[in-house]
Design goal:
Elements (H helix, E strand, L loop, with lengths): L2 H18 L4 H16 L2 H16 L6 H14 L2 H13 L5 H14 L5 H18 L4 H12 L1 H4 L4 H10 L3 H7 L1 H21 L12 H7 L4 H15 L5 H18 L5 H35 L1 H11 L4 H16 L4 H19 L3 H15 L7 H9 L5 H7 L1 H16 L2 H9 L2
Subcellular location: Cell inner membrane
Keywords: Cell inner membrane, Cell membrane, Membrane, Transmembrane, Transmembrane helix
GO molecular function: transmembrane transporter activity
Amino acid sequence: MNEYTLVGLLGVVVLLMLFFIRLAVAYSMAVVGFVGYWYLTNFKAAVSLLSRDMFDVFSSYSLALVPLFVFMGFIAYYAGVSAKLYDVANKCIGRVRGGLAMATIAACTAFGAICGSTTATAATMGTIGLPEMRRYNYGNRLATGSVAAGGGIGVLMPPSVVLIIYGILTQLSIGKLFIAGIIPAFLIAGLFIVAIVVYCAIYPDQGPRGDAFPIKERFLALFEIWETAIVFLVVMGGMFFGFFTPTKAGAVGSFALLVIAVVQGKLSWRNFKSAVYDTLKTSAMVIMLVAGATIFGHFLALTRIPMEGANLVATLNWPGWAIISLICLIYLVGGCFIDALALITLTIPIFYPIVSGLGYDLIWFGVIIVLITQMGIITPPVGVNVYIVKGLSPDVPMEEIFIGVIPFLIALIVGTAIMIAFPAIATFLPDMIG
């Protein structure tokens, strides 16, 4: 083992140690990358790398779509669109056993279509859904588990921030990645609902029946979410038919939702400022994370660890499916300890050449990786969505919430297996784009 490889491995170990002591992920990657590059070259080269990478990331046109889509999500939240989504879903399916939990999943799926953030989706739907489920005497496990898992659909449902970062790191079409995530997102939502049905059949006290609404009222309720339908169709339809790029789609969607909210009188000046502030805070976090990952990635490239890893996998002489399974296992374990965005930005430079060399569809691989990292947001010890739900329900023990997400974790594993067996589920729509 040469010195460069040894320094690279030591850098990875130090980085993981910084993760475990809860130092900010973005700063951890930037510091380790800078110090490692300095050690292998010189101080002047390291400072040049730091300034160049920071400038390139913060001036990146591609990353401009992150604050646009995040802003769209916060406008929806502060304008009360999310509350309306939950109300409609409750009217349609709340009457069946576990119906309110199903309504939560449905509302999370719809809100994810205009948000793209798992934490924002979980926080929003938890604020609305948890009090309602408690009012109807739902068990803590099903109530908290459905919110934590349902929020994860925001990772996959376009516009997904994780898919945006994956597209930037791999230079793939973000529009195609968005389109590829639609069917898998609905597939996972459907599997979550099946998991609720099975769980309520075993533990009926966890999901008692809710109020029944007339068919006419349920049908008319669907017209109450026309804002979400219009914005989703404009954004996704515009990208699908090539009318505008993903960045412009984010601008169009944000402006359309803002106009609708203002015209309807649902967005006060105070809430507008709150949406801008939350967008700035979230976007800065995401972009800083990309900058830190870029610096660390250049350090890893200098150590040649990604290339050596690709060569090592190539010499295993394993079939392609076995290598993909190994990579998925690494993401599954890593997702239990590292945030989804951090994990993807850290590992894509290593695994991307391997998957590309095996000849697999890289759009499909992006969806698979997002699916697997979705498991990480509801599994210990990171489980960011679980901690969000814990913050919303401080009286519920943490172990109760983790037990509650188990049926949804099983559904995610089943969904991932289906996606691996039938990759056309993710590639069908992108292949239709000229």
